[in-house]
Amino acid sequence: MSKSVAGKLNKGISPQKFIDSMEKNKEAFLGWGNRFEWASDDDREFFESMNNRDDLRCLILMADWCGDVVRNVPVVFKTLEITGIPTEVLVMEQHLDTMDEFLTMGGRAIPIVIFADTGGHVLGQWGPRPAHVQEAMTAFKLANPDREAADYQEKLGLARQEMGRRYGEGTEYQQTIVQELRKLLSSF
Asked: Which of 112, 111, 166, 114 is nearest to 137 (CA)?
C-alpha cells in the first residue's frame, strides 16, 4: 500500500518559521547552512530546473534538538530553496502520527524528507542521514537487537562516534546529501 501525506499538506510551518522558533542548536544549524556551497554548476542547475515543475511538495519531519537535523537539514533547505518546491516543516513531536509512518528500522529517526505529489501521494523520501553515515547505525542495530542488553548503551555510543567520524569535520558530507537528493528527485 502506498503512503499518503495528503492530510499534512499545508499543516506544517515554513523553513524560516522553524529557524526563527529554534530554541536549541540554532547557531550550529545556521553555521552548517552558511558553510554550504555548490560543488558543481551542474548540480545547481539541476535543482534550479525543478522550478519548471509544479507537481511536487516537500514535508520535512524534524526537531531542533536532533544532531542529524542540525547537520543535514541546512543542506536540504539550501538545495530546495532554489527548486520552487513548496517545503513545509513538521515538528516531530507535533506530528507523531506521521513520524510513525516513516520509521527507520522501527525507530523514530529524523530528519525525514518526504516528497509527494500535489495530492499527497508519497513519491520518495530521504533521511535521516546520508547513506554512508546511516550504514554505521544500521550495522549497530542489526548486531544489537536487544535494547535491554547490559552493553547496549556503550555500543550505541561507539556507533554514534563512528557516525560522527563518517560525517567528518568539514562540509564534504553536504555534497553527498546533494547527490542523494538529486538521485531521488530524478526518479519521479
From this structure: 166
